[in-house]
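Workshop exercise sheet. Pairs work together: one partner reads the sequence aloud, the other fills in the structure field after running the prediction. Swap roles for the next sheet.
Pair: D.N. / O.F.
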Amino acid sequence: MAQTSRAIIENDQYNTSSERHLHFFNKGETIPLMPQGIWQICQGLVRLSTLYSVGEEGLLGWGGPSMCFGSCFSHLQTYRANALSDVCLMWYTMIEIEASPKLAQELLPQLGRRFRQTEALLAIVGQRRVEDRLHQLLLLLKQEFGQPVTDGTRLSIRLTHQDIAGAICTTRVTVTRILGKLQQQGWLSRDKDRHLILKNEAFAYSSDLFGFVSNNNH
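Structure field:
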């Protein structure tokens, strides 16, 4: 199980020469990326993206507490990280990681989470029906960022309809229509902060795409 953000902050043992500094970014800020190291998220949510030659932005994934990201793992010429909320990050240089097997062992599972998420997004956009792509994306977000609440599972990450449309290669209008239909059917709702809440009876299982077999038809 991934470390909690508090554990990351309180149990940093890898910089023995001086106290490691935490880096704070406000919601909406661009996080600087340098090839000499990686960021680990202590608190908050980060959106990773690239920029196409036509000026459009392409989604690469999202990062939550404990997850790692950095341009050193990408061949993309344009690699961006933006704070979706106020975030607290910890910076590790590649020299530190290479010098500490213990640190490398701690970070490896979190890097694996990022790569698995990217692989899942690629599999999702390969599905033909947009309804299936949206359903699978919501399941992935539930798995990555879900918080149990009375009515179901609340997604701690708040995405616009355009964000969702970009993730599943469709239009904002289409996403708005399908989400509206799901809300009318009682499959999802929103809380006072506009976060999606997925109903347990509709999203109680993961699909075959993520390695779990559903007992329901949808």
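Discussion prompt: Residues 1-18, 212-218 have pLDDT under 50 and may be disordered. What would you look at next?
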